[in-house]
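Components:
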Amino acid sequence: GDFPIETDTIVIGAGPGGYVAAIRAAQLGQKVTIVEKGTVGGVCLNVGCIPSKALIAAGHRYENALHSADMGITAENVTLDFSKVQEFKSNVVNKLTGGVKGLLKGNKIDSVSGEAYFVDANTLRVMDETSAQTYTFKNAIIATGSRPIEIPAFKYSKRVLDSTGALALKELPKSIVVIGGGYIGTELGGAYASFGTKVTILEGADEILNGFEKQMSALVKRNLKKKGAEVITKALAKGVEETEDSVTVKYEVKGEEQQIEADYVFVMVGRKPNTDELGLEQAGVELGERGIIKIDKQCRTNISNIYAIGDVVEGPPLAHKASYEGKIAAEAIAGHTSEIDYLGIPAVVFSDPELASVGYTEKQAKEEGLEVAAAKFPFAANGRALSLNESDGFLKLVTRKGDGLVIGAQIAGSNASDMIAELGLAIEAGMTAEDLAMTIHAHPTLGEITMEAAEVALGNPIHII
Ligand code: FAD
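Structure:
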């Protein structure tokens, strides 16, 4: 047998939840060990947020090169070397994962490669191909993330791909079918459509990007169509036949069976938590529905020295949520009173145009019985948006009637992903529409859209009637 290694806090999984938790725990003076069975950076850095944004950005460059005639620019012989695009993507990923490794080392965190398994509530066993090591710990943070759901009629194969496979294609496919018009399907479908792939998105619900307001998803749908993509809603994917070089996807719309042939089918119908092979029962950690780990406001499970964060717990599966919870868990272990509060958590889709939302939508607020007003300002009335040739979209500000407290905002438009930060801050800081309207925003910037929406809320906008 091996001698157990003692540590204060052991973190399982080095994704955006785990590595952030480990760093914060080290900052707070704990002896920290982090265990990762795959690659440091987790899903987000390796096969999620970052590589997808690299492909989306490259797709935009390509599209701009082809379609800037209205700005007086035409280019001939624009070529696409997709293997170079993939190289660019991999370089970005490697820089970031290398950076995280450096941060772990710089914070004197012991990084261990291998798969962790609970023996009891104070002991973990870590195994790699050749060896095993036991660790005893005072506290553990479970940050093992999630993996794509597989549906029985679409077993993953050479041409039936999950998001990881979809991000790693070596050659640009001529055609793809995407099952699932959620944010991952829409983002990746959109990226390939930008490169010229013929894309068909099959969505079971009435609309793609369910959860965002219809006016917002409608803009995305229109742009997908402009890129030559087809979006089929209320479509039930039934099955797939695969040959050496193509797939035929069968689906049903309005009771009629249809089929499409394509090079690949991407299955993007959701993810499930990695909680089934962790030995949680040996540690006594209870699971909730769908394998989610139940936690309190300090990310503590039912076992008082074991915490859980990120995609394995309830809430939207987003990297910034995982990191936020990681800091809370590390601080809770150090005896701080930190608690989770999702009031100002943003949700962003890197579609075309980008969509972003924070706090309440008008509908949600009304459903909760709040008296609210919604104020809208279009990108088309903003000088910066026009000069960027990005005049599609709007910002909607949701305020409480009476005092004008900002309780939510939704943005559809270029750079919505960055613009939403100001609205999150406004909500966190308890600001009113007047506070936003009185804040001097540089001209000409997209930020002025926020200021002007606040003026709309106050009834005195300058740039619209
Ligand atoms: P993960 O990132 O999943 O990391 C968990 C880690 O734990 C993994 O590295 C895994 O190998 C390791 N692990 C699992 N079990 C064990 C074990 N037993 N022992 C040791 N190690 C183990 N989110 C956003 O906020 N913005 C985006 O733009 C965005 N884009 C996305 C695009 C795609 C295509 C996908 C798939 C996801 C995207 N996400 C995005 C979601 C985001 O990636 C996740 O929410 C985030 O990675 C969750 O972080 P985590 O730390 O909980 O887990």
